[in-house]
Amino acid sequence: MRKNIVAGNWKMNTTVPEGIALAKDVVAASAKVPASVKLIIATPFTHLVPVADVVKGSVVSLSAENCADKEKGAYTGEVSAAMLASAGCEYTILGHSERRQYYGETDEKLVEKTKLALANGLKVILCVGENLEEREAGKHFDVCKSQTENVLYNFSEEDLKNIVIAYEPVWAIGTGKTATAEQAEEIHAFIRKVVADKFGAKAAEDMSILYGGSCKPSNAKELFAQKDIDGGLIGGAALKAEDFIQIALSF
Ligand code: PGA
After folding, report:
1. What's the pLDDT tens digit per position in 76-128?
2. How far is the CA of 200 from the centre of ligand 1 (A)?
3. Among residues 87, 91, 105, 176, which is most buried (max CB within 10 A)?
């Protein structure tokens, strides 16, 4: 059985003290969330060590937002998967559209990053999704298929147990425009089929596929009610503990 997951992606928001306070609020409110829902918060690198302390012993798991595509050494400014694991991370987000768009993250780099993350015991939240131009040109299925295949098909069925996919249509991220539940479900089911084509129906059934893009308390219920939507990757609404927990209560 696949897990329901609600993951907060804080992006480049909050100072360290603000982040600690937010994490404390999330931990305090997490008691309301049933054990069937996995809660994750992904924070900036600077916040990981103190926030790891805050979430210790709670049901909230810690994630990074990115990791390096190199193991270690002379790569100024980079943070390795081993560093993240040693800081207390259980997960890392990889391939977020903002990384792809602004920092030249390619599928090839994502294969390296995913290998290193898994080798260091991290679970991966791999993001895929089309931009507005691609959606309008009717290329959304092709884009999601190639982004999924280009990374996932380099891994084994065993590795897949530690990978979660997040479908995030770029046109819905931070825009207030959410994909309709039907639009999202259609792509989720399609991505699950792309997974099944290589790894079989069982592996695809067991994989959690999250929706991201202006997911909030008012629309989470309808999205999460879809058969192939197993939760959300939440940006803006994750910056308020109350909204984030409300979303987690929407299954
Ligand atoms: P948003 O961001 O919820 O603010 O649209 C989602 C994401 O980019 O992960």
Report:
1. 999 999 999 999 999 999 999 999 999 999 999 999 999 999 999 999 999 99
2. 30
3. 91
Number of domains in the chain: 1
The β-bridge partners of 39 are 6, 60
- The CATH number covering residue 14 comes to 3.20.20.70
CB of 214 shorter than 6 A to ligand 1: yes
Strand partners, 167: 128, 211
Question: Which tokens go with 2?
Answer: 């696949």
Q: Which two tokens stand for residue 145?
A: 């298929």
Amino acid identity at 200 = G
Which domain, by its residues, includes 52?
Answer: 4-248
Residue 50: Cβ within 10 Å count: 16
Residue 82's Cα: distance from chain center in Å? 19
Residue 71 falls in the annotated catalytic set: no
Which atom of ligand 1 is the closest one to the Cα of 213? 5
The model's pTM: 0.98
CA-nearest of 21, 31, 44 to 240 is: 21
Let me know: does 207 contact 163? Beta carbons within 8 Å: yes
- Bridge partners of 41, per DSSP, are 8, 62
